[in-house]
Amino acid sequence: MSDVWHITHTEMVLRLLCATTLGGLIGLEREWNNHAAGFRTHILVCIGSTMIMLLSIYGFAEFVNEGSVRMDPARLAAQVISGIGFLGAGAILRNGSSVSGLTTAASIWVVAAIGLCVGAGFYFVSAVSTLFVLVSLFVLNKLEKHWMHRRRAQEIVIKVNFHTGSIGRIVSAFEEHRISLNKFYMKPDEKSNEAAGVKQVMDLHFSFKNPNSEKLLLAIETISTMVDVISLHTHHQLNAKRMKEQIA
Fold it and tell me: Structure pTM?
């Protein structure tokens, strides 16, 4: 029987330790930034995929010499790649128009691939891939925030006592300060409507593409003084102290 189908216990332990280390390094970054899947989750995924790869290559070595048996080390590995998606899906959250958790879901999928590489003995590929992933999560994340900060849409949610003319006055306030509206939609605030009785409370969602921060603050100051406005919330930090003073 060929030695390619055999592995020592020492080598198995080495591969599992390698998977724990590499998966932990990526998970540590996710844990540090308070994401849903963190340190332990990434370690478990990496160890699990390494175990399955070891099983796929070496677990059926006793059947190699059987005439009707064909070994396929990639069979179980393919199931890991497709099956790990349920963990990634659990990390993705949608809140209105914003989606979070995509990077964490991708990191889980990559960690599974790294675990498969470790299980197959591809140490160099595993180490280099882990390095690239860490660079992507640490370095490129900061560069992306720096480059894309001014290109991202500014979202504002305004809770109002809805009646004829209330939306028009708010839109006019933005137009007076030369702020172009990108998207707008509104929906009833069910909790407030139950408590308010007759009055109908609506949540107005405004989205602006690359607005001038000073002009937007001036518009917010004007809107916050309107009688119909109950509260105002912005998804991006413009000037926290000034916002609190105006909305309080």
Answer: 0.56
